[in-house]
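Question (not urgent): is this output format expected?
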Amino acid sequence: MGTTQLESVPEPKYWHLRTVLTEALDSEFSVGEILPNERDLAARFGVARATLRQALEQLELEGRLQRRRGVGTTVAPPRVGVAVGTQQHTWPGAAGDVWQTTDCELSVPPASVADALESGRDEPVHTVRRSRVTHGQPVAAELLHIPQSSVPDLSGIDAPSGAARARAVLRELHRLELEGRDSAVELGSARADDAKALDRLPGAPVLVVTTRYIAEGRTAALSVATYRADTCRLTFGDSGGVEIHENPERRAS
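Got this back:
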């Protein structure tokens, strides 16, 4: 039987180097240890720095390495298991929620968020910012978008911004009966605000979990949670399935 076109393509140099580097990480380096600089690594393995960068980026994506501001590239600890969606009928901010509420603002959201909420593109929505910390390190940042129609009685609350306002918005949201929710997970790259919140460099790999909360037959809230892909392994309850789409829509951001 003849070989296929893919079988005849040689292994990319960076992928071979990734394998060699993996063996070196397992035998020569310990968790948290700083790797030599790119020039020294490229000289050691006899490759161009561009090839080395590709291999390092792949290992960062796989969670074997971390790039840290002012430190350099270090060997990453094992991924932390982070539970997602284990309580299917609980609003954000309910008792037992592991997220920390930090801020809230009323502003016009990106068009993709407005479309998901089925609100007017010029209609302001409440955006609650939340963070998640595991074992003392930030692992996720969330933007929870809530249309004004979901919290109609909020106008009488004297808390214009900040964590107090955010908690007030969530309390009003809890007045609705949660009918269900659905989530989608995608691989992405950290934007500047995500990177700052997660103590990563812009462009670092992240996992984006977009969740729609359904009440009164409509999307009552939309969560866009960004998890560190280098340290997180997302785990889900047994009540949800997995869907594969040929042409997935661009994530709300």
